Amino acid sequence: MTKAVTDPAQMTITQLQVAIGRGDLQPSEVTESCLARAGGCEHEVRAWACLGDDKARMAARLLDASPATGALHGIPFGVKDIIDTFDMPTQFGTPIYHDHRAHRDAACVALLREAGGVCLGKTVTTELAHFHPGKTRNPHGLQHTPGGSSSGSAAAVAAAMVPFALGTQTTGSVLRPAAYCGVYGFKPSFGDINRSGVFECAASFDTLGWFTRCVDDIEIVRRALLRAPARALEVVELADLRIGLFRGPHWDKAESATQQLIEASAQQLSTGGAHVHDIEPPPGFDGIAQHHRTISGYEFARAISWERTQHGQLLSPKLLDGRCEDGLQASYEDYITAQAALVQQRLAYEQMMRDYDVLLTAVAPGEAWHGLQATGDPVFNTAWTALHVPALSVPAFTGTGGMPVGLQIVGAFRADAKLLAAARAICQGLNIGIVPGVG
Amino acid sequence: MTKAVTDPAQMTITQLQVAIGRGDLQPSEVTESCLARAGGCEHEVRAWACLGDDKARMAARLLDASPATGALHGIPFGVKDIIDTFDMPTQFGTPIYHDHRAHRDAACVALLREAGGVCLGKTVTTELAHFHPGKTRNPHGLQHTPGGSSSGSAAAVAAAMVPFALGTQTTGSVLRPAAYCGVYGFKPSFGDINRSGVFECAASFDTLGWFTRCVDDIEIVRRALLRAPARALEVVELADLRIGLFRGPHWDKAESATQQLIEASAQQLSTGGAHVHDIEPPPGFDGIAQHHRTISGYEFARAISWERTQHGQLLSPKLLDGRCEDGLQASYEDYITAQAALVQQRLAYEQMMRDYDVLLTAVAPGEAWHGLQATGDPVFNTAWTALHVPALSVPAFTGTGGMPVGLQIVGAFRADAKLLAAARAICQGLNIGIVPGVG
């Protein structure tokens, strides 16, 4: 057996599949390499709520001795700590669940393990996946927020402690940390990936998502989570793509540097042969954020009824006085009115996307904020979550402050593979490739 | 304090509210009365997976000393054993979870307790809320199935061991046991009642439901679960109602006695002044059952990935070789095709219901089957679950075998209060009132 030249922790899933498949790498070596990286940078990044060294080693050794049947054979991954695992604590980012252990794996975790994946540990989440931050720092600048709520998963992938990690998005909790930490982050179409065993915040929006260091890896994980046979993304050319440059109602909240980077990218893709057009939002689009707020507050305040009534003193004021209070004030009539309005917006979006394959837009106003007290503004994420459509954050740029800036690519409902194929062509056109681990 | 003349366990929520509000009854007396009933008939009915005597007594005593602020102050209830409770085991009807304890209350349970309700215990469910039966027997005939999967909840209410109990419906798991056990059973519009802490079978259909012994009680529980202020049902007259007599594509599966009872009811309502018309299903309606099967199988097989991969030998052949295998065979493309077809059917249904307030139809082919090996056929339930619309089973008739036969009333999406108001008028018109406890 020859050792791979590259540090396995720096390899993508796609690369690891080849190396493990050939016998150049053993699952144990990959896990050890990831654990060694974690040993080297976790004291600074603080991505993990619980690192399951021994359990991961044991799982990897079992895989060393087994034929590589699953698509993720021997591939380590991280799991946001609002997702149940039977063998490690699940603490939801709140002292209410200090040292709590779930009795089973969430469906997504069980599916990844069924495909041969090795759970390396649980990654830091903000309090109950909301805005009160955890301990994680941005690997690109330790005084900067990693974004949230899937803070630890984004940071762990950015620091190459794992090739991929699971997060969840109810507003902007996958896309924004992906942009801030300079990795790929994907929120699939709502409803596609099973949520059993994932903490419920707002059932109308909660979506499992994940972080990787290249586009192809996104699809590998997606198909494992769907329990679908592996299949490579279709190859498309820029000239085949109809791209909408979508500034939308919140464009003035993007910093001018962000605006310029995205507009320049659109120009570059157009020069490269893509059909790029400015696109206006459908009527009523600017009301989506308020509908999302009504619905997510309403649902959240009810979902955490037990925590609210039994452990209210352990919840942060940010959560209790914010979304929870919003939700208790919202009436059933407010709620169903907002739901009905979103149904109309989804139809309008579907209509609009008959003429486009994907949209290009901002992921976040700019670089990750300095300071660790807040996780940033989801203003560019809320609408796509509310519309249930797939969205990808691509680590496209470096901002004027030296921190990553993302580019968001949005697709049509349940056209996730099409979005990812288009994203690959776009990344090639913009010369965006595999992200090396930071630090 | 004067003792109520009636046995409190035989009273409805509406009656108990008055008696407790006046001080004629204390919460403890109600709980003791329900526990005494359970002591008298549980050995025959076997409705409970766990009866929480001491915990219920303690909760009731605390309420004795508190002002009656909540709508359910001092009202005992049962909880289907796939719904988490922090203080009693949750065993999901499978040996996999023998003696398992959840760490929190499901949102629905916490909301009922917040409204002053007293959790009396956990009621028997079939295995993971599917078709493999539990130990419960029908209080109207102990050799007959109570229906399923919410078997214990329906039987406990029928036997007056509690005035109401929670169930869940993914296919026909509330409506059918309600009909078989001769109580009111309600499945609200999909998405209205929070499901956090309820075992996930098929997220696209899983709906919390409940059983009572009168129509008004259904609305009291509904508003507590919505965390909405109490509000009585609107009073409507039969002459105000546009009723569709819906036979549908499976009418020939109803026994002729059932067909005649429902047709006679429609005639009687018409005579009473209601506008009753025969109604034909929209095109494609007869395909709904197959779409439901594809989607529920697909989702279920993924939701129980942990149980399937880790404890497959403890799952019943009925479950593994049935819905689970169906689901593993279904592809993602099959799944989204079926989902898209149901979206169209929901639109067609909405269109049809512009001309009707409610539909009348069968709940089940006939009386509860003799024998305890199977829970009956959900053929008259699947479509309404798949369409996400509210449906009520009314204990309308006694069949030729002396067992109860239900009448189903179906409404438009998110017009639940309207459906229940219409149902009250219909029940009055058919002289169907409060169901006395059996046994």
Describe this structure in a few short sentences.
Two copies of one chain form a homodimer. Chain A is α/β, with parallel strands linked by helices and 439 residues long. Chain A has helices at 13-22, 27-45, 53-64, 107-114, 151-158, 175-181, 215-226, 256-271, 288-303, 305-311, 317-329, 332-352, 382-387, 416-429; strands at 48-51, 76-80, 118-123, 164-169, 184-187, 207-212, 242-246, 275-279, 358-362, 391-398, 404-410.
Largest sheet of chain A: 11 strands, mixed
CATH architecture call of the largest domain in chain A: Alpha-Beta Complex
CATH superfamily label of the largest domain in chain A: Amidase signature (AS) domain
| Uncertain stretches of chain A | none
Structural class of chain A: alpha/beta
Q: In CATH, what is the class of the largest domain in chain A?
A: Alpha Beta
CATH fold field value of the largest domain in chain A: Amidase signature (AS) enzymes
Spatial order of the strands in the main sheet of chain A? Answer: 1-3-2-4-6-5-10-11-9-7-8
Distance between the termini of chain A: 29 Å
Would you report the number of β strands of chain A?
Answer: 11
Percent range for helical residues of chain A? 25-40%
> Radius of gyration of chain A in whole Å, from Cα?
20 Å
